[in-house]
Amino acid sequence: MLTDMHAGALLRGLRHQRRLTLEELSGPQLSARRLMLIEDGVDPTARELAELAAKLGCPPLVLRHGLGSGRSAEIRQELAGADEALAQGMSAKARVRYATLAGDPALGSRPDLWRQTELGLALAEEADGDLPEAIERLTHLMNVLAPLDEQLPPMAYEDREETEHRIGVALALCRCLREVGDLTASVHIGEITFSRELPGGWTDRGIELGATLLAAYIERGEQATCRALAAQLLDAAEQLGTPRALRAACWNGATVAAMDGDAQRAGELGDRALAAHAQLSDPRSTGRLRARLAENLLTNCPAEHARARQMLLTAQSELAGSAASAVDLAYCQLSLARTDLLAGDPTAAARQAEEIAARHPAALNLVADAQLLTADTLRAREQTQAAAEVRAGVGEQLEQMQAPARASKAFADSAAELEQCGDLEASTRAYQRALSVGELSSL
Questions:
Q1: DSSP code for 128
Q2: Is 415 within 8 Å of 430 (Cβ atoms)?
Q3: Domain residue extents for the chain
Q4: Is the pLDDT of residue 193 over 80?
Q5: Which CATH number fits domain 282-381: 1.25.40, 1.10.357, 1.10.287, 3.40.710?
Q6: pLDDT one-digit tens code per residue, 213-237
Q7: CA-CA distance, 443 to 441, in Å (whole number)?
Q8: Full-model pTM
Q9: Which fold has domain 4-52+60-66?
Q10: How far apart are CA 245 and CA 171, in angstroms?
Q11: pLDDT band at residue 418 using 50, 70 and 90 as cut-offs
């Protein structure tokens, strides 16, 4: 049985669960300074415990003893059920289960179970396409586990499970921020976590975080940085020799090779990623990996759009029966729309691109890709002026997202289309904009 000596840790956990600061929990009889002392181990009085329990909305016994062993076992079982539902692609069901657990007023007295619940709920929100809610939850978790403006003490690396959990939260947050178009924040989270968790040594999860950071660099068009990080991750993965590490490193390494126009290298790394993945059981990653390799094929070998389409249809089926997010599925659908365009059906491609952009307005990265496809369909239908206007709008959006290389390309393509239409004045302005934005990407 816990004693009052543990009341501070219990209080901190319950406060974090309710997203309260010390100042917000304090009052005339309990200052923020006094609360800090209690959380640091000073024994609270009976009156203080009663006042805190009333403010936190839980029985005083919770602040003395936390969850009982029986309730803790029940929560673990319910968490396992929610995890299973999410893994099977039933995100709405999983979200309800996680939310029910998160509503237990005493859950915060077991920080480990609270953290698992919050991360599961954030992943379910992401899977539902509710990216802003997932980002808010993951940001709070990051602030509780490892605030970005603080150095981790050496003892933080002693518990490998805690380290893996910190990396898992940062990885999910980095990914969600990338999808809503906040590439600066995505890179910031990824870089800080990547650098401060490396002293603990390379792990599968660490390489997966590096690959997620690499994906953000790819979206920003930072090719030199992408090449360097891709090489570092591949070297570390080969040293580890585990399927998860090799899959992550080869997966995004293939994308970097595709960006460089090295179709042979992209194909080799893609094959290695698939071979490593064959040793794992992860339906969501199976679909995402296959879809990414199909996108690389469309980039380097557009004439092979029929083969890419078959890969994408298989990936779509795999994603639909897994924990894949709505955004994962939307990217796959967008690539399928591109195969329609390449097969000579720009109308079908345009319809799908517009539907995807309308269905996921918060996923700005996805919306930008969808609008670029819309511009391509307009050009294919000889509506070149309209294509140029759409592309310029995407350039504006990408510039706001701090993706200068991609923004510069959008403005340059718009300029070429305006020149084709005979609007030389507008074309010159667009070329100047492309050069101006492009200079930022080289800084």
A1: T
A2: yes
A3: 4-52+60-66, 67-128, 139-280, 282-381, 399-443
A4: yes
A5: 1.25.40
A6: 999 999 888 889 999 999 999 999 9
A7: 6
A8: 0.86
A9: 434 Repressor (Amino-terminal Domain) (1.10.260)
A10: 14
A11: very high
